[in-house]
Amino acid sequence: MQNQAITVRSTGQPPGFGAAASLSARRPLTDAFALTGAPLTVAKDAEIFGQGEPAEYAYGVVSGVVRTHKTLSDGHRQINAFLLPGEIFGLDAGDEHRFTAEAVCDSTVVFIKRSELAKLAEHDCDVANGLWALAADELRRLQDRTLLLGHGSAQERVASFLLEMAGRTTQSDTVVLPMSRQDIADYLSLTIETVSRTLTALGHAEVIRLPESRTVQLCNKAALARLNS
Amino acid sequence: MQNQAITVRSTGQPPGFGAAASLSARRPLTDAFALTGAPLTVAKDAEIFGQGEPAEYAYGVVSGVVRTHKTLSDGHRQINAFLLPGEIFGLDAGDEHRFTAEAVCDSTVVFIKRSELAKLAEHDCDVANGLWALAADELRRLQDRTLLLGHGSAQERVASFLLEMAGRTTQSDTVVLPMSRQDIADYLSLTIETVSRTLTALGHAEVIRLPESRTVQLCNKAALARLNS
DNA sequence: CGGGATATTGATTGATTTCAATGTGAGTGG
DNA sequence: CCACTCACATTGAAATCAATCAATATCCCG
């Protein structure tokens, strides 16, 4: 568990010019994180960094799951992303973190000083290109998310979420969701009630099964995908 | 009009480590675009590149306004961004463009081969860091947009849009919108009717005035800003 | 002075939120 | 081991906001 290598996962295409080039471009980041000391253990719901704090470190998930979120002035909470093992967070930031990061469940993370990474990037083009590639990946993810939150019924959002989680966590058709309904709701910009209702509706339609509230069996991925369109 | 310098505008903080460093980091991109030949003239509503086409070039707006959008399978259109003079587009892409780019009004753009930019970035850290900074800016813009489209009433969306456009185009309180109501609607994920109704409602509330349908006077920016929260 | 695109306004419908109550499951202490 | 409790989740009824359907108005241009 400890000191497991951080592998940067790409959700899509590299920002430019061919996958091979970009994959190798990301390696130096992996190496940078490997230089880190002992992983940090974070208890469920504990904060890793807070919105507005000076952004000193970037992090990589080793085990567990991390969520980044913003809390709006009206009390609403918007979750920006769920980070799984191998994924990096805290890199998008100015001088201050724009999000709060918390552990969804007991987790371990590694970290690296952002100033060191920046210094590296000044002289090492591979690192700089890796950072670009990472930002571009995130950009694409967010563009898709924008579509989903813009035009996207509750069903489409939930279906998309299930497929996303399935694609990221398992090869089988059974997903164990590490996060609460509230987390899902805040990620999809829905209410907890709507998420719950939608899941039961999908169960009714025999598209999914819910053996336990956090265990989802995708019986009909094709139908789920069709809900996205 | 022709060969006007492309200045990369930052909407927010640089991706890391201080504004000064990043501003200078972006200069090489400016230079790269300056190497370009004669600007391309694009008529209103003409396509600059299409979703799915090989992404050979990146572009900078010299004059006019450009919109990038996706058309969904259900016929809906989602506008991703409006690009004003000095801004760059077409850089976020894999091998294929993820969006269609069109001129909102008669415009001129300059362009540069992406492969050349990539080659430059391989050896010139300043260019690579500039590309990172650009992606990070875009990332922040999109994160804010995600919030808006997630939780955000029609009023909040329209108010936010007016403030955004005002901030980008004018020093005064009068904004001349270059795009149609349909464009605004597709940008904010609303219907044209809702945009229209919301504008008239804001007029009623004496927060804005509408001398002409595309000319908006922001009488009460504070109230508009409060609608965002 | 048409004529077509663009924009506004009105009436109705529908999906999601909100408010409210009930159900379920895991952990604790008697 | 069972009852209790608290957090989490589901279900129901009503309210709300934006979408839809439909008509009218305005502007620009030939």
Q: What is the structure about, briefly put?
A:
Two copies of one chain form a homodimer. Chain A is α+β, with helices and mostly antiparallel strands and 229 residues long.
Give a description of the structure.
The structure is a homodimer of 229-residue chains. With 229 residues, chain A is of the alpha+beta class. In chain A, 42% of the residues lie in helices and 22% in strands. Chain A contains 7 helices and 11 strands. Chain A has helices at 19-34, 114-123, 125-150, 154-169, 181-188, 192-204, 221-228; strands spanning 40-42, 47-49, 57-63, 66-71, 77-83, 88-89, 100-103, 107-113, 174-176, 208-212, 215-218. Chain A has a 4-stranded antiparallel sheet. In chain A, strands 2-7-4-5 form a 4-stranded antiparallel sheet. In chain A, a hairpin with a 5-residue loop joins strand 4 and strand 5 (77-83). In chain A, helix 5 (181-188) crosses helix 6 (192-204). The longest helix of chain A has 26 residues, at 125-150. Chain A is elongated. The model of chain A is unreliable at 1-5 and 7-23 (pLDDT under 50). The interface between A and B is large, with 50 and 50 residues. The structure holds a DNA duplex (30 and 30 nucleotides).
Anisotropy-based shape of chain A:
elongated
Mean pLDDT of chain A: 88
Helix amount of chain A: 40-55%
What is the topology, as strand order, of the major beta sheet of chain A? 1-8-3-6
Structural class of chain A: alpha+beta
- Give the low-pLDDT segments of chain A: 1-5, 7-23
* Helix and strand pattern of chain A: HEEEEEEEEHHHEHHEEH
Cα radius of gyration of chain A in angstroms: 18 Å
Termini separation of chain A comes to 39 Å
Count of strand segments of chain A: 11
Number of continuous helical runs of chain A: 7
Largest interface: A-B, 50 and 50 residues
